[in-house]
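tool_call predict_complex ligand=zinc ion
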Amino acid sequence: MNNIMVKENFILICPKCCSTDVKTDFSNAGMVATGMFKNEYICNYCGYSGEFFPEIKESELEEYKKENCDK
Ligand SMILES: [Zn+2]
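tool_result ok
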């Protein structure tokens, strides 16, 4: 039994304010049909939106916040 595929939750975090209250914007979901799908994420806290939000393992979230968001 050396299968170490631990199922871990990944959480999106806002690169601006480090809030994890992030939602996926599906407003351009029509693009998916054309094969050019581009997800956008929106932070509910500061309103920042973008294509790239860091995805952090749930177990590493606190560490990430400490290193990147503790100001
Ligand atoms: Zn934010």
